[in-house]
């Protein structure tokens, strides 16, 4: 899955998990796109721009659906290593 497809999945997850708000405006979608495509994202300061809202939603989706932000083979490798380490608190199988 390429970064454009992953960005579309993240935006669709926003609409699914947060249906009441009117949605994300252009700058917020740009932040989502940057998080999906880059290792580091910097957002400029400003009042009432929705930075905290989009950052909180991205963080939640990051933990719920890591495959949206990483390549699937990387997620499988991390999960394999986590299970092999024997950490029962994190086992969801």
Structural class: mainly alpha
The succession of helices and strands, N to C, reads HHHH
Strand residues, percent: under 5%
Stretches where pLDDT is under 50 for at least 5 consecutive residues are none
Radius of gyration: 15 Å
Largest sheet: none
Task: Give the overall average pLDDT.
Answer: 82
Number of helices: 4
Number of strands: 0
Helix content: 55-70%
Give the CA-based shape. elongated
Distance between the termini: 24 Å
Your description of this structure?
With 93 residues, the chain is mainly alpha-helical. 58% of the residues lie in helices and 0% in strands. It contains 4 helices and no strands. Helix 1 crosses helix 2 (26-37). The mean pLDDT is 82.
Q: What is the structure about, briefly put?
A:
The protein is mainly α and 93 residues long.
Q: Would you spell out the secondary-structure blueprint of this structure?
A:
Blueprint: H1 3-17, H2 26-37, H3 51-64, H4 72-84
Helix pairs in contact: 1-2
């Amino acid at each position: 899955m390429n970064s454009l497809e992953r960005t579309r999945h993240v935006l669709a997850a926003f609409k699914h998990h947060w249906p009441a708000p009117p949605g994300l405006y252009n700058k917020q979608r740009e932040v989502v796109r940057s998080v999906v495509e880059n290792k580091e994202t910097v957002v400029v300061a400003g009042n009432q721009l929705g930075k905290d809202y989009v950052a909180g939603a991205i963080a939640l989706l990051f933990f719920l659906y890591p495959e949206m932000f990483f390549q699937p083979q990387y997620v499988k490798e991390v999960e394999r290593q986590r299970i092999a380490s024997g950490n029962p608190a994190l086992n969801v199988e």
